[in-house]
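For concreteness, we quote verbatim a single protein encoded this way:
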Amino acid sequence: MDLRDSFEQPKPALRMAGPQDAAEIVRLVNELAEHHQGREKVHMSAEQVTKQLESPKPPFECILAEFNGKAIGLALFFQNYSTWEGKPGMFLEDIYVDEVHRRTGVGRELMQKLADICKERDYGRLDWHALDWNSDAGTFFSSIGAKRLDDLHTYRLDGGALKKL
């Protein structure tokens, strides 16, 4: 049965990921990259994620969405800071729900959990990027009240350019 066809959708179990979830995090990030036609750009490994999540100050946090004990989605985020607001915020690096569970409320549940964390921690805002070709994501983000910021551009230094500077 396709979950999207049922009248009442079961809610996923949401939980904070730990080092023991490294392989599932990497699997879901690889699925996301595949969806974005960028699988070859992912260099993340389970060993790397395990080590990072075991560190005293992990560089990220991750919420896993599960059905029947299987991870079907994630929201990977970290703290940032707004000089204009004078308080911390959250940056959502990746949100992903596997194809079978899309349009069943899992993405909304993940975003609600992120909003709850922001409120608990007194964060001023939640920021993220979305690829311009991903109109489904844009529609979803608009449906939860997010504003698209057309006056900002993302810049990146990496690889040789970062080393050179």
Notes: The radius of gyration is 17 Å. The chain has five helices and five strands.
